[in-house]
Amino acid sequence: MSKSREAARQEIPEPLRRDVRLLGRLLGDVIADYGGAKLLRDVEQLRALVIRGRDDGRYESAAEKLVASWPLKRAELVARAFACYFHLANLAEEHHRARVLRERDRGPAPQPESIAATVRDLGRTLGRRKLDELIAELRIHPVFTAHPTEARRRAVVTAIRRIGEQLMRLDDPGVSESDRVEAQRRLSEEIDSLWRTAQLRNAQVGPLDEVRSFMAVFDETLFRLVPDLMRSLDRALASDSGRRPVVAPAFVRLGSWIGGDRDGNPAVTAEVTAAAMTVQTEHVLLALEAGATRIGRALTVEAATTPPSPALRRRLAAAHARDPKGVDALSTRSADEPHRVFLLHVADRIHATRIGKRVLGYSSPAGLLEDLRAISSSLAASGASRLAFGELQNLIWQAETFGFHLAELEVRQHSTVHERALAEIGAGARRSDSTREVLKTLATMSALQARFGGATCRRYVVSFARDAADVAAVYELAEHAAGDRLELDVVPLFETLEDLARATSVMDGMLKLSPVRRRLAKNGRRLEVMLGYSDSAKEAGPLSATLALHDAQAQLTAWAAKNRVRLVIFHGRGGALGRGGGPANRAVRAQAPGSVAGYFKVTEQGEVIFARYGNQSIARRHLEQVTSAVLEASAHRARTRDPAVQFGEVASRIGGASHTAYRKLVETPGFDAWFAKVSPIEELGRLRIASRPTRRATGTSIDDLRAIPWVFAWSQMRLNLPAWYGIGSGLAAAPLADLRRAYAKWPLFNVMLDNAEMSLAKTDRRIAQRYLDLGDRPDLTAMVLTEYDRTLQRVLAVTGHTRLLEDRRVLSWAIELRNPYVDALSHLQLRALRALRNRKTPQRERERAERVFQLSVNGVAAGLQNTG
To answer: pLDDT-derived band of residue 691, with 50, 70 and 90 as boundaries?
Structure first.
């Protein structure tokens, strides 16, 4: 083992090392049981070769020869073994992160970037009155999307979760020895189940499959997490939380594009949108009913000690008039326990709402909240403050956050679709399927609002918005579809550099539209605009896009102040670094001053959803960090001068040079065909990981290719080019001293270079070279590798680091230790690609090669911990 790998191994905390060893050993036992000792020896031989191959090219060549010597059937089993290993290694790391977070929470001092620490610090600097004003406008709004970046089957995710449950049992210091032995047995059983579970999907994923995957996160994490966050804020504002009326608002709202985003996805129809909301409603009402039932059954206080208020007595009388048989039955079982009776009646009404019994059910979440608050007020009035403001308050927060819809379902469609629809309607022509679908979608939005409330499905995002007419078109189509019954907020999405540059002029035009003026008068002059990170980066490269997005935010913020508009900037960030990904809390702090005014709305995509929200402790830490960053950015927005002004000349020089270098690459004649040869882009298109096609049109050009598969393909090649290409050329255009000052004083520039450093660390030049050799274009290969070397050298020079991730030891050792195992999967993937692209490969072998390829994709994605 090399010194660097040995040093990295020594950096691993012992509990994590223990878990990885245990899971690896049990996986080895399962592999040997399944395929015999020879299969395990093959896996171990490849593992040993790729580890030594990191330091000696002879061993890497030996690894390639070993992979080439295997029949494809053997290659498939070995690929499965490495993919399973990464699933288990990722689980161990997630488990350790959660363990560390729990241990830190036990300390007396609040963690940095926690809600408690931030509220304490802001209280000292702002004073209580200004802090309360800041809290009152706080809103954290993650929007979950179905973008195809989760390569794992839901069955695999579930199997991994069961393994995690057994790891938790083993971690429990209070568990008995017999329970520990049983947990070990269950662990082996669950790993055996993971190994035997099909890693690949047999059927294409549909939009409702994506909705159900999101529901798993809601059921297991989000519903329970929300009141924990509110309680953290309430406790930070006043220490006696749970014994007084709360002061923390329900500051989280969820959004979803899953089942609503139809831009280029013909599988998403009006019927799918309605069905998606039906699924969401079922889950949230089940959760609210279960919560009301659980708390109601425990609310056994008798009237003699805790008399109900007159208001609650009136509600009990109304409840009896509404459902005499049901209330009598509850009263018989809970004699002289009026609070319990009424809360269990509330649970019955939620149940009736869920099954569609309108006479007994609630017509809106407002009615439910009135009932819950009446119980709380009655308990408080009789002196039972702990009961009034404890678990019952948690349920109130959940009802405020999720309503009856769980997440606000947003619709998205391309601007040209609306343009064509209006042209057909205006000409009196026969309406095409596309136009009928647009009108049906708007009518469905109106029906969902009528059934579940206005917040259910109100936002309509127009992608590739070019001018105010693109916004006006949606309002006009809405009149055709639903008259004046639809409450609509049309959100322009600016994605290209040209669209970003003219965003404020589009907004000027929007203010002249009558429907927009009516909405502003009704909603307190709040207006939303969305910025697209993925397509802008694909068009211009990461550095130029980052600067253009920052400029657009600054201009929009100034525009909002001038026009007395409360602007919400919706950040369409991807999961991968090449699509605007990275730590969300650092991204908040890097926004243009004033652009985060208490409200932060951002997309959460693909594998990022499970990485951030799949574990309760990690999800809480993520949202606490984002909340902390939003509070800090909002508190200082008025007195912070944008560093972009100070470094404007530097930004102009590096942005121009970077853009030129990036466009030179993608505009080189033959680039599209070369990319198709060197990357697995066409093969990735056959993966059944999402309902949406990889291209917006049927062509083969890079312009038609969506940003997600573009990034996905480069990551599989171990290049991560969309996250760093052009940065080296940009940095070379400015004096090093100026760049170092910018890195020290400009958060945006600092975050951009740190993210570039991370993407460079996940790039492997040796493996990438093997993919590039498939293209037979040495000129393009030289351009890519030269820019990689230039970017690596310049980033290190600016940061002052002697090696990548020098100041992020944990991430550095994780990448260092994972790389050899990813190498093994890359060799297997290249073997499969050669077989698939060889026209002489028999059909049966081609099918086997397809499976090897897809397993390697899953494994590489898991090993790198990112896809698109």
So the answer is: low
pLDDT of residue 684: 84
Whole-number Å distance between alpha carbons of 660 and 728 = 12
For residue 23, which of 267, 192, 276, 198 has the smallest C-alpha distance? Answer: 192
**Cβ neighbours around 667 below 10 Å, total:** 9
Mean pLDDT of 358-379: 96
Among residues 559, 579, 408, which one has the least CA distance to residue 488?
A: 408
Share of the chain above pLDDT 70, in %: 94
Residue for token pair 């708007």 = 442
The three-state DSSP-derived secondary structure of 516-576 is HHHHHHHCCCEEEEEEEHHHHHHHHCHHHHHHHHHHHHHHHHHHHHHCCCEEEEEEECCCC
Distances in Å between the alpha carbon of 239 and those of 244, 691, 706? 10, 48, 50
Q: Tokens in use for 381? A: 């009035």
Provide φ and ψ at 109, rounded to 5°: -90, 140
Of 514, 518, 605, 529, nearest in space to 566 by CA: 529
Torsion of the alpha carbons at 209, 212, 213 and 219, rounded to the nearest 10: -170
pTM above 0.70, yes or no: yes
String of DSSP letters for 236-266 = HH-TTTTSS-------B--EE-TTTB-TT-T
Note the pLDDT of residue 868: 42
pLDDT at 6: 63
CA dist 848 and 841 (Å) reads 10
Nearest to 708 by CA among 574, 857, 858: 574
Give burial (CB, 10 Å; 0-12/13-18/19+) of 92: buried
Among candidate residues 87, 96, 351, 538, the one labeled active-site is: 538
Q: What does the alpha-carbon distance between residue 111 and residue 519 come to, in Å, rounded to a whole number?
A: 41
The H or E element that residue 601 is part of is: strand 599-605
Q: Residue 762: helix, strand or coil by DSSP?
A: coil
SS3 assignment, position 597: coil
Tell whether the model's pLDDT for residue 204 goes beyond 80. no
Confirm whether 418 is a catalytic residue. Answer: no
Is pLDDT above 80 for 749?
Answer: yes
**What gap in Å lies between CA 32 and CA 381, rounded to an integer?**
67
Catalytic residue flag (residue 73): no
Distance CA 284, CA 404 (A): 6
What is the Cα–Cα distance from 576 to 560, expressed in whole angstroms?
30
Asked whether the beta carbons of 595 and 556 are under 8 A apart, the reply is yes
Quick check: 458 and 527 in contact, CB under 8 A? Answer: no
Residue 330's nearest CA partner among 322, 321, 802, 320 is: 320
Model pLDDT for residues 283-319, shown as the tens digit of each residue: 999 999 999 999 999 999 999 999 999 999 999 999 9
CA 112/CA 857 separation, integer angstroms = 37
Burial degree of 465 (CB within 10 A; 0-12, 13-18, 19+): buried
* H or E element at residue 414: strand 411-414
Does 700 have pLDDT greater than 70?
no
- Look at residue 149 and tell me whether its pLDDT is greater than 50: no
pLDDT for position 611: 82
Pairwise CA distance, residues 103 & 119, whole Å: 22
Mean pLDDT, the chain, integer: 91
At 153-178, the pLDDT tens digits run 778 888 999 999 999 999 888 889 99
Angle at 631 (CA atoms; ends 625, 633), nearest 5 degrees: 100
- The answer to whether residues 570 and 531 touch, using CB atoms and an 8 Å cutoff, is yes
Report the pLDDT value the prediction gives residue 473, as an integer from 0 to 100: 97
Catalytic, out of 87, 147, 414, 762: 147
DSSP 429: P
CA–CA separation, 679 vs 669, rounded Å?
17
For residue 703, what pLDDT band results from cuts at 50, 70 and 90? confident
DSSP 8-state secondary structure symbol assigned to residue 705: B
